[in-house]
């Protein structure tokens, strides 16, 4: 089984962190291929960053379709381009936010999210509404660290995230914590040990959900809205997508 883990930001060191965390948790026989778009933001911390990154995610899915991939993971906590990516393939496509919400809801009745910057919290709030998890989440918290500080100042970032997780444990009345950034993929064990609550991290959760779906023989439904997009003309910079029928 081959899982293509797409880091939607273009920071190579974060792609490595994500790929290593995914490989550590993967079952024997699962191959993890971690990739990043050729173009796009180095980190995703705004609606603008997210919109631009979605194009890169879709190009990575199209490349995966040419290579043969059993499942895709979108490894940014805003799940950029998720539904559009599903239109392009019969393989399962899982976003790390939705994977973490599902896993956390299976082991607790209430969880809190600890993400990077306060301004990205609204993205998680929107996803909770969109996916139907609003009722399961007590609070979206931010450690107020820029995404790239996870790479450049790891120790300080870990301390701030851990402190916010302790506040979530003490104040929110929760059973579990969801970590809200792909760049936190390698921090789960340390934070869980320090805080004493189950900590759910989306990249690793998505690997296990992907393995489960592929094992069950389940892929993205091509009935209804996730069918391949209707071929049509594209203009300008996107002309190469004209009349393309994705991997039917
Ligand atoms: C993210 C993420 O997971 N990767 C990134 O660049 N930005 N989202 C976030 N809330 O920090």
From TrEMBL:
Pfam families xrefs: Asp_Glu_race
Recorded family membership: Belongs to the HyuE racemase family.
Name this polypeptide is given: Aspartate/glutamate racemase family protein
Organism: Salinicola endophyticus
């Amino acid at each position: 089984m081959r899982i293509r883990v797409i880091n939607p930001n273009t920071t190579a060191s974060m792609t490595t962190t994500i790929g290593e965390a995914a490989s550590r948790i993967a079952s024997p026989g699962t191959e993890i291929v971690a990739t990043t778009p050729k173009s796009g933001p180095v980190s995703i911390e705004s609606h603008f960053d997210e919109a631009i990154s979605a194009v890169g995610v879709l190009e990575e899915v199209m490349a995966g379709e040419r290579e043969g991939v059993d499942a895709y993971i979108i490894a940014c906590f805003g799940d950029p381009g998720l539904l559009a990516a599903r239109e392009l393939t019969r393989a399962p496509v899982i976003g790390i936010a939705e994977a973490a919400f599902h896993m956390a809801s299976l082991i607790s009745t209430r969880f809190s999210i600890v993400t990077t910057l306060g301004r990205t919290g609204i993205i998680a709030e929107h996803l909770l509404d969109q996916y139907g998890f609003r009722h399961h989440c007590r609070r979206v918290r931010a450690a107020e660290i820029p995404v790239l500080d996870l790479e450049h100042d790891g120790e300080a970032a870990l301390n701030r995230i851990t402190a916010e997780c302790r506040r979530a444990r003490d104040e929110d009345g929760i059973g579990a914590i969801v970590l809200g950034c792909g760049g936190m993929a390698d921090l789960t064990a340390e934070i869980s040990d320090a805080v004493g609550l189950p900590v759910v991290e989306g990249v690793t959760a998505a690997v296990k959900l992907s393995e489960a779906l592929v094992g069950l023989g389940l892929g993205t439904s091509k009935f209804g809205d996730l069918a391949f997009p209707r071929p049509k003309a594209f203009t300008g910079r996107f002309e190469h997508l004209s009349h393309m029928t994705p991997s039917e």
